């Protein structure tokens, strides 16, 4: 029996069974659905993309996986070199893993050990945001701040190692002043907080965070698992404000295979580069640098660059703003739009009960959560298809 995610198995309704997928469409036995959430925000090129398929098949004919312990291979070497050129600043050192959550764990471990390698064992604390979501493994849950996902940690009581603040500069400055000698990192989902409610905030907050991290010798970590590859309307938020550690996943492989990377700058890498074996980063996911994942990631990045995906994302935002302009309803608290994301926050979660089936019957797959009805569409979507997604959202409130 399958144990499904984020579901009470006793009361859940049967999931839709997918028998095929192509472009922006998912196919059940009786319906054709526009995937308005890109399989948890990852399938940016759509399904069954011929070039991505060929990249997987070509590599599988050689080998699908070898461990990186004592071995290496061309796809992982090429991907590391590509990321070095593709990413801003001196984000040059790629540590691969098999999921976004694990990649964030690696980032938090790096930040802690960076100071331990210096002999500074006082910097044990993490600064994070209210409504943060960084994954469902244990340290990422601790860094997160969402009772709906992480209530199991209540068994341990309040954490001594994590401080959460709102996205307000005054709160940021106060936290740095209070905890400055105890912080090892400040971790954020930059500009757009995903699972915490599609919350959007201004780049000025990140710029001030960078200044304070420099002033107080604290590492700045960007969790761009969800926001990377254009979702905020920027290639990466890291193009606007440069972090010390950047975490990527989801769209890294175009949604084809679970894979992620924790990318460190020169400063962080040099904190581990030493004759002492105790200063090495002792971490090693079995499937890190998987050859299939690296091959399809290389092709995904190539498509992103050569087919001007940033222009596609600007067009998605333009159409979304046009279609949602002036849209309101007594049950809606706010409509938020940023890059390739639109979110309707309602006042009461009960308002969205039944929407998924409503959308299904109109040819759209959607997965609202809590008080949030949102869309993060594949970037290859046509104007007609996008208008249909947005129209379905609006139609729900016009009943």
Brief rundown of the structure:
35% of the residues lie in helices and 17% in strands.
Q: Can you describe this structure?
A:
Helix content is 35%, strand content 17%. It has helices spanning 38-41, 50-60, 74-86, 100-118, 138-143, 147-150, 169-179, 203-216, 266-270, 291-306, 309-324, 355-361, 383-397, and strands spanning 20-22, 25-27, 32-35, 93-97, 125-129, 162-165, 183-188, 192-193, 199-200, 219-223, 245-248, 260-264, 332-338, 341-346, 364-365, 372-375. The protein has two domains: 20-49 and 308-397, Aspartate Aminotransferase, domain 1, CATH 3.90.1150.10; 52-306, Type I PLP-dependent aspartate aminotransferase-like (Major domain) (Aspartate Aminotransferase, domain 2). The longest helix is centred in the N-terminal third of the chain and has 19 residues, at 100-118. The protein contains 13 helices and 16 strands. With 399 residues, it is of the alpha/beta class.
Q: Compute the CA-based radius of gyration.
A: 21 Å
Total number of β-strand segments?
Answer: 16
Average pLDDT over all residues:
97
What is the end-to-end distance? Answer: 38 Å
The CATH architecture of the largest domain can be given as 3-Layer(aba) Sandwich
The CATH class of the largest domain, by name, is: Alpha Beta
**What fold name goes in the CATH topology slot of the largest domain?**
Aspartate Aminotransferase, domain 2
Helix content bin: 25-40%
Low-confidence stretches: none
- The number of helices is 13
CATH superfamily of the largest domain: Type I PLP-dependent aspartate aminotransferase-like (Major domain)
Shape: globular
Largest sheet composition = 7 strands, mixed
Q: Give me the side-by-side strand order of the main sheet.
A: 4-12-11-10-7-5-6
What percentage of the residues does DSSP assign to strands (E)? Answer: 15-25%
* Number of domain units: 2
SSE string, helices as H and strands as E: EEEHHHEHEHHEHEEEHEEEHHHEEHEEH
Structural class: alpha/beta
């Amino acid at each position: 029996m399958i144990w499904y995610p984020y579901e009470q198995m006793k009361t859940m309704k049967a999931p839709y069974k997918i028998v095929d997928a192509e472009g922006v469409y998912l196919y059940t036995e009786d319906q054709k659905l526009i995937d308005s959430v890109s399989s948890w925000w990852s399938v940016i090129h759509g399904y069954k993309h011929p070039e991505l398929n060929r990249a997987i098949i070509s590599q599988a004919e050689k080998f699908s996986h070898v461990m990186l312990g004592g071995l290496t291979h061309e796809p992982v070497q090429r991907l590391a070199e590509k990321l070095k050129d593709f990413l801003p600043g001196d984000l040059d050192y790629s540590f691969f893993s098999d999921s976004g959550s694990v990649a964030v764990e690696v980032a938090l471990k790096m930040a802690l050990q960076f100071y331990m390698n210096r002999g500074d064992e006082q910097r044990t604390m993490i600064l994070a945001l209210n409504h943060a979501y960084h994954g469902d493994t244990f340290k990422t849950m601790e860094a997160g701040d969402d009772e709906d996902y992480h209530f199991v940690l209540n068994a341990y009581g309040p954490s001594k190692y994590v401080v959460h603040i709102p996205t307000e500069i005054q709160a940021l400055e106060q936290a740095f002043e209070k905890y400055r000698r105890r912080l090892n990192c400040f971790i954020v989902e930059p500009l757009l907080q995903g699972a915490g409610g599609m919350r959007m905030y201004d780049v000025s907050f990140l710029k001030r965070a960078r200044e304070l991290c420099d002033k107080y010798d604290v590492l700045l970590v960007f969790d761009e698992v969800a926001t990377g590859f254009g979702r905020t309307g920027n290639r990466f938020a890291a193009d606007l404000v440069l972090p010390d550690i950047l975490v990527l996943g989801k769209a890294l492989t175009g949604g084809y295979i679970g894979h992620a990377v924790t990318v460190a700058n020169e400063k962080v890498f040099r904190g581990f580069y030493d004759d002492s074996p105790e200063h090495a980063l002792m971490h090693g996911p079995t499937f890190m640098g998987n050859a299939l994942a690296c091959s399809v990631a290389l092709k995904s990045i190539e498509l992103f660059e050569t087919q001007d995906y940033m222009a596609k994302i600007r067009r998605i935002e333009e159409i979304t703003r046009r279609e949602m302009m002036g849209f309101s309803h007594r049950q809606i608290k706010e409509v938020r739009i940023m890059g390739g994301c639109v979110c309707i926050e309602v006042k009461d979660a009960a308002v969205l009960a039944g929407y998924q089936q409503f959308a299904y019957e109109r040819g759209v797959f959607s997965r609202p959560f809590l008080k949030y009805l949102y869309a993060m569409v594949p970037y290859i979507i046509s104007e007609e298809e996008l208008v249909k997604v947005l129209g379905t959202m609006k139609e729900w409130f016009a009943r």
